[in-house]
């Protein structure tokens, strides 16, 4: 069974006033939209009938045909669970991507609001009109061709609850161990499968392990706590298979379709095709050492000095073999760091980190609540205890960091080594403007040892040390369009404050910013012209076009009509 579970056809915007022209996607309710007999004929060619989803919250509205109190109770209990949301076709990680927000209305379906009020309606929002549950490559090919023929908007939803496919033996005579997966496999499961075979794989880190291993994560570049030691996710891809916008199913590697292979490794998904498999390199699994810190600042001066010292030590810490996470919120500052080996294989690792601890312990207004360094049998034990089951976790509780099912505006800033080295105080002051952030120390090391144009992934990754992730939410029940816009603007203003210091627009496309200035420069930099050229050759009809994706500058914000 193929792991990629869902392809959505045409957003359900039957009330749209957009006229169906050759420059616009065709929508339900328009004369150009395929008739019921045509749709039924297409449906008979698929492995399963089309799904016509309503928003997840519809089962909670008494005035909705899908009303079901039992199902509503499940939605309310699991609606913020990332694994649950990935298993159903109508849900997105952040609920605002299920919602149609314009200048006058927020059309949504909030099960946590006053659903008993008869004036409250469950709007379809961005939830698609039809969904194909994929069981074969043929299902993908038929769907792509149908959407292309009828000029429908095509959306790909990865990360379903599907089976793990296979672990490969060493490839040929190269001695490289590898794993081949199909989309829908999640990193939490893949890590375990690989670890059970004594191997390690570079992958995404998230609460509950629900990040998909074979879709947007690798297509966006894929950074990881393991990246400084083994490279970005795209550095570890040996081969991919993909259904092109033409419907053709092809293999891409260094020798076959090399331009496509270049674009798939960081060009953003699903701009160049729908992935049907990814082959990742795996590595021997060494023991690891982890370090945890919880510091509390009781004065603003203490907080400022703590951040200055942290920024200053950043390059040395990376060079001594540490990677990890440094979330902060209000007066609290956390470290969750990892080094390869137990004790660390880099002889400078422990001394460098202890020097930082000793320094901040002398700062007035800084209290060290927790300082722990401990060995783990390997990455898998560290990951399980800190990101899957918090019973044995230390320091920051990442298992409660699952923000699924809430509205969110997000931004990312890749901070170069040069900024840490040359403008530490200015950078510290910019970071202090954020009350809450989830930065990733995932650069340097092997990440920096690859040519910026070796693959499509943002060249800014090659010089960065940390990725700062900023996120703000709003009240999904009461927020007006103007209030939502204000939150989005605030996130961009905060990101702009850091970008003013880095003097670089570099950002991570998998943490896309709604109002990012010049997305081409932010996500792909100098690699964008080549990416766009490949996109135009592979997808001349812009079938697989996404907001802020390659070649989307000629489309409106909803990717419904061309503007140029």
Automatic annotation (TrEMBL):
Which residue positions does the secretion signal occupy? Answer: 1-20
Cofactors demanded by this protein: FAD
- Domain (FAD-binding PCMH-type) spans 67-285
GO MF annotation, one: oxidoreductase activity
Query: What are the protein's UniProt keywords?
Result: FAD, Flavoprotein, Oxidoreductase, Signal
- The reply on keyword Signal is yes
Please give the family membership noted in the entry.
Belongs to the oxygen-dependent FAD-linked oxidoreductase family.
Record's protein name: FAD-binding PCMH-type domain-containing protein
Species name: Panaeolus cyanescens
